[in-house]
Amino acid sequence: MSILCRVRFARAASAAVCITWCHWIAAHADTATAPQFPDTVVELERMVVQARRAARDRSGVTRLRAEEFAGRFADLPAVLEQVSGVTVRRTGAFGEYADASIRGSSPRQVQVYLDGIPLNVAAGGAVDLSKLSLNSLREVTVYKGAAPLDLMQNSAGGVIRLESQPGKDIVSGIAEAGSFGYRKAGMLARKRSGRMANHFSVDYTGARNDYEFEFDNNTAHNPDDDSREVKHNNAYSLLAATYAASWAVGGIDTLTSLVSFGRERKEFFHKYLADTLQETERTADNVRGYARWERNLSGRGYVGVRLDGRFESRLFRDPLGLYYPGGERKERERLPYTSLRVDGLWLLTDVVSARALARGTYEGYRSENLLAASAQDAPSALRLAGTGAVEIAASWEVLRVAARYSHIHSRDSANFSPDRGGGEPRKYSGHFPNGNLDIVAHVRPWLALDCAVRHEHFPISLTDRYGWGNSYRGNADLRPEKNTQAGMGATLALKALETSFAGFAGYTEDLIELRAQSQQVMMAQNTGYMRFAGAEWDTRLGIGPFVAVDNHFTFVYKLKRTRGQEWEDAVDILYYSPIEDDLGVTVAAGPLTAGHHARYRSPYLKGYSKPEDIVAPLPALDAYVSVRFFNEVTVTYRIENYLDESVEPLAGYTPLPGRMHFLVGQVVF
Amino acid sequence: MKRLVLFSGLISLMYAGGCILDWKDDTWAEDDTSTVESARYLIVATSDYASGNVAQVNVEDFSVSADLLSIHSDAVVSTRSGTTYILERGGADNLIRVDGDSISSSRLVYQQSIGTAVNVQDIAVVNGSKAYVTQYASPDLVIADPSTGEVTGSVSLDSALYLNDDETVPYMSAAMAIGGNVYVAIQRLKVVQGPFGPAPDVVDSTGMIVVISTATDKIVASIKLSKGNPASMDTCGGYLYVSSTGSWSDAEDGGIERIDVSTNMREGLVISERKLGGNITKVVMVSGTKGYVAVAQADFTTRVVEFDPSEGTKEGTISGIDDAFGGIAYDGTYLYVGDRSLSDPGVIVIDPSDNSTVAGPIDVGSLPPFDLAVLTIVERT
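Structure tokens for the assembled complex are given below, as produced in the milestone run.
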């Protein structure tokens, strides 16, 4: 197995169309009907070369391919923990809620796209990264600075793009077993045939998550009644299947489509109820898919239409009424989404390209108490949004500049009043403009400098607008959060050394947080402002033909002040480790590969306000060894957190699992 | 000298007002003339509903020691004989005891678990070896030893008389020890499955006060109230005043009722929510003619309203208080209100003679006030 290669790319707009072209040409070079546009191809090829060089050498984007993470990581949060600038917060083991912050952003501002379909919901909240299957993914891309045009919708906190679209031909299978009942099985097949490429994947992941933790009996000041308990009612399972296909039609048209189904189940363990039978669980079914048609415009550009859809149905059961106070619960949520997008690119000159898109979106949210006497008044809300976005990009030999603007207009409505108990249901309209500027300068063949600035509005969630819950109240006066951020970086690519530095700083105004009003009613409010700054450093060093060292360093510092407060009195936020470093060493010799990882996190607050809530975790140390047989079969043994550190991530959550063992078998044809 | 004057004034007030100095937060041994007050503090539980802490205010100069002891985000404070008890409620179900005149982890005597998922609500300390703890999610009234915090017994309130329909718990709330009895308020709610989920609410029932002998732990009386959802009690002049919120969705269905503790008979409604102008919660009695109650308004502010229990009239609203959900206490001289206002939270000190603000908002640390109790340190003469 060759030394794993971690390369940075950015998908510049012209590079996207060029890659599509070149890909298409390469895929169909052997067909009699392949179109011939030699002059245009030469011009496009030049831009492709420039764009690819610029795209590779850019500090604000990290791209990971499947061969870099398949079999090496148990889940997506573990993959993202390796990325500089990304801070992952876990609350437990497999399938237990995990989210990510990018360069200090709020996790709910981080947009996650799966095959171009947003997983963030208008109802609000961060995307739970623990519930996403890793097996079918071909690529994970993290946009830490400026996002590309098609991802600029709600990208104030950065973007995580997950792709499982057709790639090179492959048939693979994976089976994995590990600690605490962890098991995984999956199959992936991609095949090109003539003008068509197909992708099919199915995978299952599950775990009992029955690990031990130190239980303080809810008496933090009394260690005498502490005990060692085992989590129960904490199992997780996910079954996912995806089919995708692409066709080249008539030489100038391309059709791509995807349909995916997933079913997950998660039991909920409550630390407070450690000695009580718990039966709380949540199941969710989701279907998503898209269809896209794209036409080449005489080699000078393309135009495309894409229809997306996603539907999720969640069922939450708490038959004993213990997980949340108030009584027995049985609630169903429905989250439909659909979007129609028209977009295109046009090469205005040899240097300048223009891109535009228009999108209409419908998204709904309905929650139904299945134990209520009548389902007629089940609260529901919907959002209709229209987006218009443009990009102007210019590429020279050593310089590429792209400027993007996106404007979202949305209209929210609900069937209940935000004030509950009186008043008519209210409609809200909002305008959310966003802009970013992206500059990459390839000053030397081995040195690139990049700079990105952006200013974005984050739309207000339906739950913040309307207040969703017995003790929640809507807020008609909310202003959207606004993020302004600038980042600069340098990327050095030598023969055996690739290293990249980045610094960033930003400002968020009109922070939205839940605040307790009088009478213990919660309401979202614009509470204040935040400043953040940080640095990232990624390095990959090849030492001889067998050894590679990777290091990924992140530093983020955040200050928050409330309204009426001065910045001198601002509070630094330590809910996340301000410093994280991930150091990996890989040794590969023939069929044998071994690696070691150490992940350091600086002290952080597991509580909310008190110095004694500071946690200083030990480094998480992982190691693995892989053996390849017959070129197709790989067996990997992996041990994670072998120091057996068990740290409570946040007050109220049980500590994370300690030492874990995994055995993975992969077959790739 | 100042303390002696204050002490003399208190004794005078006791006779002139007819209000036994038997406020919930501290109990005088009325016939014990061998002690003298040496210091007085206001103990403040603070909370932002995610975490909690404790602050201590010196009532002589209103100086503050803040963020002294991390506690559960839902906790109430009670004091007796120079000892502070902190009841950590739903999500913790613990009892903390701190001895002496300064709150700190080094003065913590114990943090003792009372139960699991029982949602303890209030504590009534009878003496050094006996206390009663109410539980919202259990039919049992816990008997605990306050010297150790350990549970020593219970009194079952699972009789159909105390339950609403098919509910299995009576929804105990406030408790108060008076004479040889403990008075326990039960709300007798019923879980209503609404569009946003379940919540206990007033459904075809009113509250009750269950009277239990502290000597025998037997129920000696069950006093049916005319209003629902009793949440707070205070005693004055031989009477028990019970504040009942009624339904939170109805700002006119509750009220304050009076019970004669010598006969354990309900005397009637003193004043209604309609007169007070909103949903009522915490009640504090100053005298037989003056009381204060926190009133939650429709605009989600909570004011402090003065009322005359003898006339059943509303006398006025104290100005400058936005959110009195942070507790109310009276030490015989001043009224202390925990204001949880978003803009300027803290403790506000009120002179009940004219409802003027004496001090505040007194900043009590990184979190806003949640509950208050007066801690009196006495010395033997």
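The two ends of chain A are 14 Å apart (CA to CA). Residues 1-56 of chain A have pLDDT under 50 and may be disordered. Further analysis is deferred to the final report.
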